[in-house]
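To: structure subgroup
Subject: Chain for Friday's discussion

All,

I'm putting the inputs and outputs inline so they're searchable in the archive.
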Amino acid sequence: MTAYLTWTEVKLLTREPHVLVLSLMFPILLMFLLAAAFADHGGPVFADLNGTQFYVTAYLSAAISVMGFMGTPTHLAGYRESGVLRRFRAAAFSSRAVVFSQAAVLAILAAVGAVLMLVLAYLVFDIAAPVSPIGVAAAFAVGILAFGGIGTLLGSIMPGARSAQGLGLLLFFGTFLLVGGGPPPGVFPDALNAITSWTPTGLLIDAIRAPWAGNGLDVRAMVTLILISAAGFALATRRLSRN
């Protein structure tokens, strides 16, 4: 069931190019602009990375979080609003299959976006490879699970697509711009950084950046993201089974 729904969703995406542009081109464009603008910067303000590495690692997380906060919730809430989920239940598709198919689509789009970002970064900026590619891949995978849980949970509780999109915009920009998507966190007060580092976006950036820089896995970030994933999927499945 999950595989069939996932394949159907992928085919539907090819008919909605604006979704692909939002999920793939938006973070790629911003990553390119900021990495180019701050290529010659570095030091403690940029987490002891050069400006290019700093923004590439930050925007790898954006490939995931933009879908988890905006794409998946808007799509799933639209299904609930239009009665598609009721038709799924009538066709004997379980809420679990719906939840995991949405997460699988998020994973596909995030992976495609990340590959495009890395290819662009290596071709244009000639950045150094991550010290631990396996660690970066593990952090990316855990991030997909966490934001898959967040996205499906938001989509299961928001009353409609417009409200889900509005909340998603607030959550994405309200966190991402404070944890590395805009000014480097080093220019913000320590108290603010301490708070935003515990947001899902902040945790994901830390999880990706640590193995990239050769600092091993960020256990705090990885464990917290796994817990977020488990809670999100469980609550989303329960909620959708009752709708």
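Points worth raising on Friday:
DSSP finds ten helices and no strands in the chain.
The chain has a mean pLDDT of 86.

D.
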